[in-house]
Amino acid sequence: MTTIEQFTAFYTDLASMQVSALKNIYSDNVVFIDPIAEHEGLPAVEHYFEKLLKNAKYCEFDIHKVLSTNDDGYLVNWTMRFTSSRINKGRPVAVDGITVLNILNDKIVFHRDYYDLGQMVYEHVPLLGRIIKKIKKGLS
């Protein structure tokens, strides 16, 4: 199985994954960036996932498309669906995003996620969510 195939299989059902499995697809010196934070090195990424998965009751990714940008780069288009006791009163949330990956020696060395943090978090905070939705409606 190629690294990109392992990546897509891994993220299909993230809530049931084992943090220890990250070492199978990520390099020891991976740089992992998302709208929340930046993590350098496999131990930092493992710690980040431990915290994320602790609060997630359910989390899966629908991988829509994987595009190769060159010999070692990929763009992955996805929708993440999750529930968390801390967001949206535990009700399901869907977030669309794109991941940029670089692979070297069959391991991911760079991972950057692009998604709307408002869609993920802010729109589900009671008062703030109403304000953001009103602003979006006014702009459309």
UniProtKB/TrEMBL annotation:
Give the coiled coil ranges. Answer: none
What residues does the SnoaL-like domain cover? 8-111
InterPro entries listed in its UniProt record: NTF2-like_dom_sf (IPR032710), SnoaL-like (IPR037401)
Q: Name one Pfam family in it.
A: SnoaL_2
SUPFAM superfamilies xrefs:
NTF2-like
Q: What is this protein called?
A: Nuclear transport factor 2 family protein
Q: What is the species of this protein? A: Glaciecola siphonariae
